[in-house]
Amino acid sequence: MKRSAQPATASKSPRTRHAKDVPARARTQPEDGKPRTPGQEEGADRRHEILEIAAELFAERGYRATSIRDIAERAGLLAGSLYYHIRSKEALFVEIHNTALAAAAMRIHNALEDVTDPWARLQAACLEMLEIQLNSGSLTLPIMNNLRSVPTSVRDVLIQQRDDFEKIFRGLVADLPLDRNIDKNLYRILLLSLLNSADGWFREGRLSREEIAEQILRIFRH
């Protein structure tokens, strides 16, 4: 499909929720450090809006059920005009997935700042993961759980990015004074499996997220 020289507009559908995990780009300075022209500024803002809309749709409907036409309609564009801002649906999903992972990683790194005790660091990371997974406004979980529905070539890229994200927990577990008979790789896998499935077993009211993070630490410390 050819790219349109200028984006044409269509009727704009209402937004459903804000994609909090797609950080806004700098509005005054691009990556090369040179000031943007008014046209570049407008284009960057428009592209970020498209990323937010696409993230919402992927989270709501999944990768397969979301089409370029769906994204364009919600953005108020004609389908062909969307290619003025993006290369392909696959590239768009990879960018959103990686941005969501980067946002999650940044949140965990911030939570670990100034925490030095290995067990306290693990508890802080567990709590932040619970907050990410259980936040109804977060798109990280539904975006990350779309792996099975994407093409194999795209999945391979996403798995590599997820492996890089999990290095955070690999480092945290490596620092723990665990019994030498405990396999740290299996320990990490079990811990992440528990945290990544939190939306399936968590129920509001019984224990707070802070209390659950504390309980997880107590269980995994023995």
TrEMBL record:
A Pfam cross-reference name: TetR_C_24
The species this protein was found in: Acetobacter tropicalis
Residues of the HTH tetR-type domain: 44-104
Oxidoreductase recorded as keyword: no
Composition bias type Basic and acidic residues, residue spans: 19-35
Biased composition (Polar residues): 1-13
Listed name of the protein: TetR/AcrR family transcriptional regulator
Region (Disordered): 1-46
Entry GO MF terms: DNA-binding transcription factor activity; transcription cis-regulatory region binding
DNA-binding region per Swiss-Prot/TrEMBL record: 67-86
Keywords: DNA-binding
